[in-house]
């Protein structure tokens, strides 16, 4: 039980601080709500405020336990002292007994499932991977650290900063319990909305539709953030509806904050900003009232939440919306090719057709990481709610927030839309009371693990058990977590690798339990280069076997450039080495030379380092006009250039241009002689030597990694020794 | 917001560089003369066995079946010789008579040798460089034309393998 105390303290202390902040803000603004909705909305709005405060503390490296404890106690204390926590709003009429008991029974049963899973040691893939992985790094540094080797560190982290607050007191599970509080708040907020529109049954039904949904409950019980986002988005909707009734201009302040906070929680929720601004502007314009000032208030407050994250990314990785839009903001930290592949993967997962999505997200769940429950097969029925004004508002919000879904078709990306669909569905059948209660009961039954295990796909991401003993600490945390291979490998790495030694791995999670710098192959441009180096010895298409020789009459040149002329959507252009000749002799590379390339100038040195395992790549499809340039800094007599490339460059077409004393570019030749250069000696040692030169002394290899068996079979040829192992994973040390 | 976006669009990272420190070709490891040899006495020999080599009955040799094959990595492709040390069992020879063994590299027959007597044998022959690659495993094996069949359990035996691989 001792385990539970810091976890609950961390989560509830964070929640209480956020709630107090929200109540203080509402009192200050003198906003009028009903009693319960005020408390719930205050929690969500206060979370936005606390997240903003945490941003400042992280930016100033003051995110330490002492200041956080003082801050929380001061906020809560002041809220109590000032009477801000006493709600002055009217109460909603009590729920009809039938609906009250239906709600209490179902809420209690599913809370049991969700709460104990949240309280159990956190071991979700992304939770213990990057959500809490970044939190751990910030905690160690007491604030932000510049991370250029992990794309996830560049995403907005509004909720992660709240997790950081909770983590400082209760570690990993405090974050998941905190996330669970957002689900509780969301369920009651939906219930309140039903009461606000005078349809208690709709509120109860929709709250349970949402709360019991398997993916929603699962997501809320781990350190993800989709349910928190759903709560933020629904609270924004709620506030807009209240503002539409009372037109209190001060209401636009929390509206603007939540619109911006939605982006802070997740990039895909950026649509909250145009939604909020558009809603306010449209309503005012229809009544022929001034639009500009209210729209500006919402915009400025939203921007105040969003801009700090953009500036942070701009400073750290030269792209305000990293890891997206790298074509617009080219930078050395994320490759354009990675972004393209990543987005394509997320938009497709491994589905054969998008027609599989409806069944996948509702009942199967194995390809899209979870399912909502079969009730949501009835989503088209929600259109019947269009006959009500509230229904139109709900469906409009659903349509707006679902529009980014196809950028990532995982089921949890539908969670922010679930409250709107649930309410619209309940509203659609509201007049047929027996039908609504039948749907609620059927949903509750079909969302219980023993039942959904009968119909969902075997590999569906779902809650399988209620780990009460692990949650209460009766099973030691390390024992419970060691069942997870990612965690077990992370512990092996921690035990083997000295502090401050980076580890390269093609794939591995569990960073939240690993206080080491783990460089994952796909997670940054520099990591991808390391991966390219390691794969070159075992992937023939990567090796510098293609030789393009440009010969021409000796010329005095100041600069020369190799220009690529073909459009190859499926190939990248790469140059392993570019050598310049005067007669038969290669001109020794001079420190006064200046080298550049378009695109990806930052890796140009890889084509001039005399290493067969490094290469400059475009990291985007080869296109006409791409070039690599050498500036000799003075006139040099040149008569030939050799470009060493590889088979994966495809059908590239190159020409050579030179600039003489006249300062004008002229084509020297566009007919290189092609030949092949067989690789006669193993490149393995050169590859690991290259990693070592870059400060990497440890490499984690798993059997399914490309070349995985090669490392295990011939470690001596790679210059590796086995430093540790866990299951099939091997940690190699570069000698 | 648009102002910040415009500012961020301005390049601020260096875009031209001097040539870096020159790497010197790594000559490769010098793991000794047996680096490309699979010795049946090696405890890791099983990692190299592809097929038709039975489990270890003795610390230094293993029985084979008809097509004993191993995979290994060549460190360089030139001046390599296929090398094998094995034995033809006297008692088995009484049943099979002379045997012919084909030596294969990546499925291509390097040579065929007829052995008219039992006893310890050694085979060695240069391998064309273009049959080999340094970036992937090379499969080498033997194909024995006649097998000794144990009368008690019907198990088939080819030769007694000591080692097989490449020598420079």
**Element-level helix/strand string of chain B:** HEEEEHEEEEEEE
Distance between the termini of chain A: 47 Å
Shape of chain B: elongated
Total of helices of chain A: 25
Mean of residue pLDDT values of chain B: 87
Q: How many strands, which pairing sense, and closed or not: the largest β-sheet of chain A?
A: 8 strands, antiparallel
- The Rg value of chain B, from CA coordinates, equals 25 Å
Task: Measure the end-to-end span of chain B.
Answer: 67 Å
Structural class of chain B: mainly beta
Proportion of β residues of chain A? 5-15%
Oligomer: heterodimer
The counted number of beta strands of chain A is 15
Unreliable stretches of chain A: none
What proportion of the residues of chain B form beta strands (DSSP E)? 35-45%
Basic shape of chain A = elongated
Average per-residue pLDDT of chain A, rounded, comes to 96
Provide a descriptive summary of the structure in words.
The complex is a heterodimer of chains A (735) and B (168). Chain A is built from 25 helices and 15 strands. Chain A has helices at 4-29, 35-59, 65-81, 97-119, 125-141, 158-196, 200-212, 214-220, 226-246, 252-265, 272-286, 292-317, 336-348, 357-364, 389-402, 418-428, 433-446, 449-455, 468-471, 477-481, 485-496, 525-535, 684-693, 708-713, 715-718; strands at 503-505, 518-520, 546-564, 574-575, 577-582, 585-586, 594-598, 616-617, 627-645, 654-659, 665-669, 673-676, 698-701, 720-726, 729-734. Chain A starts with a helix and ends with a strand. In chain B, strand 9 and strand 10 form a beta hairpin. Chain B is elongated, with a radius of gyration of 25 Å. Chain B has 168 residues and is mainly beta. The chains are: A alpha+beta (735), B mainly beta (168). At the A-B interface, helix 12, strand 7, helix 23 and helix 24 of A face helix 1 of B.
């Amino acid at each position: 039980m001792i385990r539970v105390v810091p976890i609950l303290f961390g989560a509830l202390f964070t929640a209480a601080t956020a709630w107090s902040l929200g109540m203080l803000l509402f009192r200050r603004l003198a906003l009028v709500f009903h009693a319960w909705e005020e408390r719930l909305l205050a929690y969500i709005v206060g979370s936005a405020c606390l997240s903003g405060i945490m941003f400042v503390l992280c930016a100033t490296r003051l995110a330490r336990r002492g200041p956080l404890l003082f801050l929380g106690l001061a906020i809560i204390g002041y809220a109590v002292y000032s009477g801000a926590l006493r709600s002055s709003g009217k109460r909603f009429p009590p729920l009809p007994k039938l609906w009250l008991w239906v709600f209490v029974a179902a809420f209690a049963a599913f809370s049991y499932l969700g709460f104990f899973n949240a309280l159990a040691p956190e071991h979700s893939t992304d939770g213990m991977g990057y959500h809490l992985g970044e939190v751990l790094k910030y905690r160690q540094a007491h604030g932000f650290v510049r991370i250029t080797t992990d794309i996830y560190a560049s995403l907005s982290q509004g909720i992660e900063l709240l997790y950081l607050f909770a983590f400082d007191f209760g570690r990993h599970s405090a974050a998941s319990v905190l996330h669970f509080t957002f689900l509780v708040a969301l369920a009651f907020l939906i219930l309140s909305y039903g009461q606000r529109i005078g349809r208690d049954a709709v509120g109860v039904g929709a709250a349970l539709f949402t709360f019991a949904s398997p993916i929603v409950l699962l997501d809320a019980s781990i350190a993800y953030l989709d349910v928190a986002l759903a709560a933020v988005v629904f609270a924004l909707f709620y506030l807009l509806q209240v503002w539409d009734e009372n037109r209190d201009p001060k209401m636009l302040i929390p509206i603007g904050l939540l619109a911006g906070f939605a982006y802070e929680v997740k990039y895909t929720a950026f649509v909250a900003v145009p939604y909020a601004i558009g809603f306010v502007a449209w309503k005012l314009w229809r009544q022929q009232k001034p639009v500009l000032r209210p729209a500006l208030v919402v915009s400025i407050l939203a921007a105040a939440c969003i801009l700090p994250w953009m500036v942070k990314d701009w400073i750290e990785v030269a792209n305000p919306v990293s890891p997206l839009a790298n074509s617009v903001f080219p930078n050395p930290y994320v490759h354009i090719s990675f972004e393209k592949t990543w987005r394509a993967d997320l938009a497709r997962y491994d589905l054969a057709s998008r027609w599989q999505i409806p069944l996948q997200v509702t009942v199967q769940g194995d390809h899209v990481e979870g399912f909502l429950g079969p009730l949501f097969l009835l989503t088209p029925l929600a259109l019947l709610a269009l006959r009500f004004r509230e229904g139109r508002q709900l469906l409009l919000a659903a349509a707006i927030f679902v529009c980014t879904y196809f950028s990532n078709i995982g089921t949890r990306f539908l969670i922010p839309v679930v409250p709107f669909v649930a309410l619209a569905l309940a509203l659609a059948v509201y007049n047929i009371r027996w039908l609504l209660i039948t749907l609620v009961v059927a949903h509750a039954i079909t969302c219980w693990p023993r039942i959904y295990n009968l119909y969902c796909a075997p590999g569906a991401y779902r809650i399988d058990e209620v780990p009460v003993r692990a949650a209460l600490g009766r099973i030691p945390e390390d024992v419970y977590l060691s069942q997870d291979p990612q965690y077990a490998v992370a512990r092996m790495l921690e035990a083997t690798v000295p502090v401050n030694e980076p580890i390269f791995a093609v794939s591995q999670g569990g960073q939240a339990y690993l206080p080491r710098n783990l460089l994952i192959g796909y997670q940054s441009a520099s990591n991808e280069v390391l991966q390219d180096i390691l794969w070159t010895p075992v992937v023939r298409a990567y090796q510098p076997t293609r030789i393009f020789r440009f010969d021409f009459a000796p010329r005095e040149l100041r600069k020369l450039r190799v220009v690529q002329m073909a459009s190859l959507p499926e190939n990248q252009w790469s140059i392993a080495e570019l050598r310049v000749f005067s007669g038969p002799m290669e001109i020794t590379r001079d420190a006064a030379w200046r080298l550049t390339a378009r695109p990806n100038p930052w890796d140009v040195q890889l084509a001039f380092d005399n290493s067969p395992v490094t290469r400059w790549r475009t990291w985007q499809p080869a296109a006409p006009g791409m070039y690599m340039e050498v500036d000799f800094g003075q006139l040099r007599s040149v008569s030939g250039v050799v470009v060493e490339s590889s088979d994966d460059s495809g059908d590239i077409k190159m020409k050579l241009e030179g600039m003489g004393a006249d300062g004008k570019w002229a084509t020297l030749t566009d007919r290189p002689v092609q030949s092949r250069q067989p690789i006669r000696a193993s490149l393995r040692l050169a590859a690991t030597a290259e990693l070592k030169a870059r400060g990497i002394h440890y490499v984690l290899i798993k059997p399914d990694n490309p070349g995985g068996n090669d490392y295990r079979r011939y470690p001596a040829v790679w210059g590796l020794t086995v430093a540790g192992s866990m299951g099939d994973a091997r940690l190699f040390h570069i000698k | 917001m648009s102002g910040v976006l415009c500012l961020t669009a301005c390049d601020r990272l260096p875009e031209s560089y001097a040539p870096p420190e020159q790497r010197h070709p790594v000559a490769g490891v010098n793991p000794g003369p047996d680096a490309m040899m699979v010795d049946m006495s090696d405890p890791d020999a099983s990692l190299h066995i592809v097929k038709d080599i039975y489990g270890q009955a003795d610390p230094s040799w293993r029985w084979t079946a008809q097509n004993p094959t191993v995979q290994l990595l060549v460190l360089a492709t030139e001046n390599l010789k296929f090398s094998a040390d094995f034995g033809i069992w006297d008692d088995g020879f009484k049943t099979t008579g002379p045997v012919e063994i084909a030596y294969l590299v990546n499925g291509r027959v390097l040579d065929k040798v007829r052995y008219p007597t039992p006893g310890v044998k050694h085979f060695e022959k240069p391998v064309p460089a273009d049959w080999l690659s340094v970036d992937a495993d090379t499969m080498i094996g033997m194909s024995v034309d006649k097998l000794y069949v144990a009368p008690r359990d019907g198990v088939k035996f080819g030769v007694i393998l000591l080692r097989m691989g490449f020598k420079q």
